[in-house]
Please model this.
Amino acid sequence: MEKVNDIKKEDLIELGFKRINDYRYEYLYEGIRLFDANIHDFNVDTFFVMFSIGNFDIHIDYKADLKSLMDVTVKNIIQTWIA
Model:
């Protein structure tokens, strides 16, 4: 069974994203933008999230994947600051 793009604006808000406009949200951590969410499908109002690291962009379409990546990213940032 194929996964359905399931990131909704309510999910973004729940995860701590801030609204820029109707089509874009961003996630800041200590004033640094880590994730950028853009409208994916106007008909069903779903979003995709871009995460850039180095020269690579990671495109995320699924809420569970986004939550996992956010947890790991923030944890790694905190560990870097503590070290």
Summary: The longest strand covers residues 32-41. The beta strands are 7-8, 18-21, 24-29, 32-41, 46-53, 56-60. The CA atoms of residues 25 and 45 lie 13 Å apart.
